[in-house]
Write a structure and sequence with these properties.
Layout lengths: L8 H11 L6 E6 L2 E6 L3 H13 L5 E4 L3 E3 L11 E5 L9 E3 L3 E7 L5 H14 L4 E6 L4 E9 L6 E9 L4 E3 L4 E3 L17
Parallel strand pairs: 4-6, 7-8
Antiparallel strand pairs: 1-2, 3-5, 5-7, 8-9, 9-10, 11-12
């Protein structure tokens, strides 16, 4: 008699991902069953993310950097640059934060991450019903605010998209914050991309 493993293929890749030893200076994420590794980001990227974090009031919101997020019904464990959760909803511990607790995720675009941030993660975060997805893009000097997630799996998307150039304020209504982008830097000598 032959034994058949009828578990979905994703079970195996999740186990491999969780046991993976990632070299220092490399970020690893599981995105729809694919392990994606990227180098550490540029200082410009990190300063923009830190500036956003500083503008979100800590008295009301937990602002977590590099927190793994568990996307319900997905073989995905993305690691956003910033995760915002209401302080009273934050669990006491755990590596994976359930997406249904998250109010906003923030991704800073780097030279190699535009496709992942604008296409793959947009769909993943929408599938996880994360209400607000903010893309900070120092290549195109713009913020892309995505709200109203809808749909399932790879067909999931955000129904509302607002593009704001660096220098103009971005209203983050769900957080009660008007984001000042006037100090956001840009990446020099990087070829523009075609997103969103």
């Amino acid at each position: 008699m032959t034994a058949v493993d009828d578990r979905p293929m994703t079970t195996g890749i999740v186990k491999i991902f969780e046991d993976l030893e990632v070299p220092e200076g490399v970020k690893a994420e599981l995105l729809r069953g694919v392990i994606v590794m990227t180098a550490s980001p540029d200082i410009v990227h990190n300063m923009i993310v830190a500036d956003v974090q500083d503008q979100i009031p800590r008295s009301r919101w937990s602002r977590l950097q590099t927190q793994d997020v568990d996307i319900l019904n997905e073989a995905s464990e993305p690691v956003p640059d910033l995760v915002v959760v209401a302080r009273d909803l934050l669990p006491d511990s755990g590596r994976l934060l359930p997406s249904q607790l998250v109010t906003m995720v923030v991704e800073g675009v780097s030279k190699s991450s535009a496709y992942q941030d604008y296409v793959v993660k947009r769909s993943i975060y929408a599938a996880g019903r994360i209400p607000v997805y903010l893309i900070l893009d120092p290549i195109m000097a713009q913020c892309v605010l995505l709200t109203r997630p809808e749909g399932e799996g790879e067909d999931a998307d955000y129904l509302t998209q607002q593009i704001t150039k660096f220098g103009d304020p971005v209203s983050l209504e769900m957080l009660g914050v008007e984001l000042d982008t006037s100090d956001f830097g840009t990446l020099p000598d990087v070829r523009p991309h075609r997103y969103p």
